[in-house]
Amino acid sequence: MTPDHDRARGPGGRTGLSDLLRGHRLAVGLTQAELAGRAGVGVRTVRDLERGRATRPQRTTVDLLADALGLSGDERREFVDTARPPASRLPAAGAAADDPPVALPQPVPLLGRERDVAEVSGLLDAYPVVSLVGLAGVGKTALAVTVAHAVAARHPAGVAGVLVGEGSDATDVLAASASMFGVNRLADLSCRIGDRRALLLVDAVDRAPDAVAEALRVLTAAVPALRVLVTGRRPAGLPGELVRPVAPLDVPPAGVEPADRADLDRWPAAALFAARLAQARREPPTPAELPALAALVRRLGGLPLAIELMAARGRILDVTELLDRYGDRVLDLTGVRPGWEPADPSAGTVTLRDAVATSYHLLATADRAALRRLSAFRNRWSVELAEELLADGGRRWDAAPMLDRLRELGLLSVRGTGPFRFRLLDAVRDFAAEQADADGETARIRMRHAAVIAGLVHRTAPGLVGAQMPGAVHALDEATSDITAALAYAAEHAPETALLLAASLPRWWRLRGRDVSGRRRLRRLLADPRTAGARPTLRAWAMLGAARLAAEHGAGAEELPAARAALAVFAEAGDVTGELSARSVLCALLLGLGAHDEAREQAESALASATRHHRVREMAVAQAHLTWHDVREGRLAGARR
User: Fold this and answer.
1) Distances (CA, A) of 275 to 2, 293, 421
2) pTM reported for the whole predicted model
3) Which long-range contacts (CB under 8 A, 24 or more apart) does 306-310 make?
4) 149 burial class (0-12, 13-18, 19+ CB within 10 angstroms)?
5) pLDDT at 91
6) How far apart are CA 326 and CA 349, in angstroms?
7) Which long-range contacts (C-beta less than 8 Å, at least 24 apart) are formed by 119-127?
8) 596 contacts: CB under 8 Å, gap ≥ 6
9) How much is the pLDDT for 640?
10) Phi and psi for 407 in degrees, rounded to 5?
11) What is the separation, in whole angstroms, between the first and last Cα of the chain?
12) Alpha-carbon gap, residue 166 to 232, rounded angstroms
């Protein structure tokens, strides 16, 4: 059983039956369609058998194919025995179990899945049904086959797998499951397995979910010792089922530049890309290509299907060219899944958009709408931010159940322990944004996103001074890409929102060395005629922010009038916090311009106001300013303050 990109393949990519059938077909000069027509079976059946996706076809199918191929004598016996191994290969109940039979392909090497293998292996001891769920191409079946081989010794009655076909019913699934253990009826299966443990791998459950669920209810009731490992894009939906999402491979974090190939290989997604690239070209990635490789696998979201499709293009393009050409349109990646019949490539063509679309359409209408809104986030976000965005200005509701459904389908990544631990996979976010655009929702979603981020920044900015500063800086660092996106959109479509957002950021910009770009942005927003009617105190904070940043790069003289104007606005409005901040900024500007006496006057006024309003931190800041004046003038007694 080796369906689709993420299905495990045996040595050489095919089972013995697949090689044998293809060889006989080519020997008589038939195409897959011609053989299917002559045998009276579906062309999908022939294709699946040649791909190794069906390891034990029905005896009637085998005979029909043998007749169509004109096989007889030893050739026919070999073909039938390969397609339908004698049941004696599977031991009866009570037989020696030192070497339990495993009717599955050999596992392929997995990168970065060691923890997954260990966790799923342990879950099979605790739950009768474990479902591995995720996007197409994420590696569900490869993981399942590896786990099945790893736990084979704990299942002495045997390990087998069935592939669910399109349109299968419960009878088909039950018959296939029984036949894989060498019996024809469910009652015989119960007798054969007895009270010994056995493992059944059911692949591609989403092709016939209702039929699989019904069949597995019957199986687990009739054979209590049977454990079932399911793979699909959604759970089987059984009582007692444990759903275990399969996440994409880990990618190098943003900002991490690999120093060499060994450093790059610490990240499984990058190691997989390099391994697949080696199959497309002889030369390994050059040192100059490593940064582009890290950026590319980040853009691909660590999804193995996307990595394989992209690496295949390495035959004619280097990694930097791949990033430049395809980095902004990964959903359009198109390729032929490994194992598809070369003579019929169109049947195996797949795009990353197709893979995401299938999981998207499994969602309920409300969950699709939520996913489209969540696509506005550019990086990781918290549950609280998600709820604020989804409320869209109305009543907030508990988003946790919906997020859990997205996680179960493999659409949502949950990493880390802090509040900012949720993230849509890049391909999922891009697809959901496309759907939002097609539905005419983009403008409203982006506007709401800008308002939510402005609120986050406005709430966080006061913590940029004092003991809370490390936490506040970290929170804004986590939201950097969302802040940038929100500012860019709001500056064009909602300048007052952009002004509110930008006016809260100068301290963070200064700490992160963005004083020049931050000041430029504030000046543009203040000059925008659409912000002329904004609250005077909001404009005053923006002017003060530009002045604060100007002091960092010697442009204080340009912003001195604006700082004085901001002080006047705060004083008139009775805004003590604004007044004290304005006087502190004026102290710094005036000192830089050599206006020491006026700077001292501002510090003394600040100290008096802070003392009057019991503002301890501002008192300390004013005292610090006055201390420098005392030192400059040689008044050491005063400097001891």
Assistant:
1) 20, 12, 29
2) 0.74
3) 306/137, 306/330, 306/333, 306/352, 306/427, 307/249, 307/269, 307/272, 307/273, 307/276, 308/5, 308/137, 308/276, 308/335, 308/338, 309/333, 309/334, 309/335, 309/350, 309/352, 310/273
4) middle
5) 39
6) 18
7) 119/244, 120/144, 120/147, 120/229, 120/244, 121/147, 121/150, 121/151, 123/242, 123/244, 124/151, 124/199, 124/227, 124/229, 125/154, 126/242, 127/240, 127/241, 127/242
8) 590, 629, 632
9) 59
10) -65, -40
11) 80
12) 13
Distance CA 217, CA 209 (A): 12
**Residue 109 neighbours by CB distance under 10 Å:** 8
SS (H, E, C) 338-405: CCCCCCCHHHHEEEHHHHHHHHHCCCCHHHHHHHHHHCCCCCCECHHHHHHHHHCCCCCCCCHHHHHH
| Chain mean position to CA 459 | 28
How far is it, in rounded angstroms, from Cα 331 to Cα 354? 8
How buried is residue 264: exposed, middle or buried, by Cβ count under 10 Å (0-12/13-18/19+)?
buried
Cβ contact 365:412 at 8 Å: no
**Partners of 106 in the β-ladder:** none
Show the domains of the chain with their CATH numbers.
11-85 (1.10.260.40), 102-245 (3.40.50.300), 535-641 (1.25.40.10)
- Residue 413 three-state SS: strand
Burial of 150 (0-12, 13-18, 19+ CB in 10 A): middle
CA distance 231 to 245: 10
DSSP state letters, 214-276:
HHHHHHHHH-TTEEEEEEESS----TTEEEEE-PPPP-PPTT---SSHHHHTTSHHHHHHHHH
What tokens were used for 248? 């994409």
CA pair distance 49, 83, nearest whole angstrom: 9
Half-sphere exposure of 174 (CA within 13 A, CB side): 21
Q: What is the mean pLDDT of each run of 10 residues along the chain (641 residues)?
A: 38 60 86 83 80 69 83 82 60 44 84 92 94 91 94 92 86 89 86 92 90 93 94 89 92 80 86 90 89 91 88 91 87 56 41 86 94 95 96 87 91 87 90 95 96 95 89 93 95 96 95 93 96 96 94 87 95 94 91 86 90 88 78 63 56
Residue 112's pLDDT is: 86
DSSP-derived letter for residue 133 is: E
- What are the distances in angstroms from CA 218 to CA 211, 221, 226? 11, 5, 11
d(CA 175, CA 188): 11
Amino acid at 252: P
Distance of alpha carbon 518 from alpha carbon 503, whole angstroms:
10
Dihedral sign of CA atoms 213, 214, 217, 219 in order: negative
Among 364, 338, 361, residue whose Cα is nearest residue 349: 338
Tokens 């450093």 found at: 263
| Total Cβ atoms within 10 A of residue 190 | 18
Residue 552 in contact with residue 540, Cβ under 8 Å? no
For the chain, the maximum distance between any two Cα atoms, rounded to a whole number of angstroms, is 113
* Predicted pLDDT of residue 1: 40
Q: What are phi and psi of 247, to 5 degrees?
A: -85, 160
DSSP annotation of 94: T
